[in-house]
Fold this sequence. Notes:
GO biological process, one term: L-methylmalonyl-CoA metabolic process
Pfam family, one: Glyoxalase_4
InterPro entries: Glyas_Bleomycin-R_OHBP_Dase, MMCE/EMCE_epimerase, VOC_core
Order of helices and strands: EHEEHEEHEHEEHE
Structural class: alpha+beta
Protein name: Glyoxalase
Mean pLDDT: 94
Domain VOC: 7-145
Helix content: 25-40%
Amino acid sequence: xxxxxxxxxxxxxxxxxxxxxxxxxxxxxxxxxxxxxxxxxxxxxxxxxxxxxxxxxxxxxxxxxxxxxxxxxxxxxxxxxxxxxxxxxxxxxxxxxxxxxxxxxxxxxxxxxxxxxxxxxxxxxxxxxxxxxxxxxxxxxxxxxx
Length: 146
């Protein structure tokens, strides 16, 4: 299987104040923003803190060539909260689109990548965050949409 990191879908930036950051981008002409579309529930969900995952707020904007996501973590223990507390605001992950999430996860395992968090829905959509910070400088995520 080829690398799952070939089709960039989005860049995710962790921020302290989601509303203020969106307002700043809007002043720059970057819009329209929308809430991250949380669709059907996950049938598999492995995250450090489920309530923390649910408490995160996201806003997205589709640019001409890529989606930009802003994430404001809640106070719970999540990888995004730890990143914000340790490093401040900045790029948390790069999200890549894959056609087959389980196959992408298997390929990540073959490449020796540890999983930070993952979720899968009945329709095959979902996400998988790999712990690539030490070598890639950021988290790499793969995602599949329905």
